[in-house]
Amino acid sequence: MSLNLAVKTREILENLLADSHLAHFVCKLPIPKVYSGNGRIKLVILGQDPTVKNKASRATITTVLNLDKSGSLKNYLSRICTGLGISLENVYATNYLKNFFTEPPTQIKEIDIFKEFTPYWLPLLKEELAQFPHVPIIVLGQPLLLPIVCGGASSLVRDYWAYTANWKSGEKGIYRYVEPDKNILGRVVFPFPHQPSIGKQFYTKRFEEYIAFIIRKHLIT
Fold first, then answer.
1. How far apart are CA 143 and CA 104, in angstroms?
2. Would you report the helix, strand and coil content of the chain in percent, each value rounded to 5?
């Protein structure tokens, strides 16, 4: 992230902490750094936010998606990249909501976290994405897909992975991505399950085919 974006990130965090309606839900930890590979950026990976359930481990998160250290999430993202014929050196990774929360957003019921925090963070995210025009985006997890899609697009990851009710018998629908006019980012978006869900039978069976679908569309170049 450029110095200008880093400054804006800190200013937004300060504004959130000054917002009496939202400050109660904000954890005052430093915002993790974005991850940017050293090669030409060919893919943006978008996470939800840096908050993990284990509060004691949150302070150890210093880079988006923990891409500065080994682990199951990094292995998963590396597997995606390898399938696409690129590496993490070709990736820019950032979060939709950049601050830590007192609890994972899906566990906060008092307010709609995405609705309330999007006005703070979405303009900055769009500024980040403007650095990489035409680069497609992977969105990690269904909770994040929901606030991003619009225009009647499905908010279910499985629907983009050719899901049908009879998938166990081998029946397949159509592999898809979110068209730029069907999401608030205005970019090509590929929905992926978050790492804990990739082990589910449906996603395990469809992973290689969805990767092949992306390659056929010639959107990663």
1. 11
2. 45, 15, 40
Task: Give the 3-state secondary structure of residue 63.
Answer: strand
How far, in Å, CA of 106 to CA of 98, rounded? Answer: 15
Residue 121 located in a structural domain: yes
Cβ contact 35:91 at 8 Å: yes
pLDDT class for 147, splitting at 50, 70, 90? very high
pTM for this model (two decimals): 0.95
Residue 221 domain flag: no
Q: Rounded distance, CA 171 to CA 83, Å? A: 24
Q: How many CA atoms lie within 13 A of 167 on its CB side?
A: 16
Owning domain of residue 54: 3-216
Question: How many structural domains compose the chain?
Answer: 1
Q: Are 143 and 16 in contact (CB under 8 A)?
A: no
At 44-65, the pLDDT tens digits run 999 999 999 889 899 999 999 9
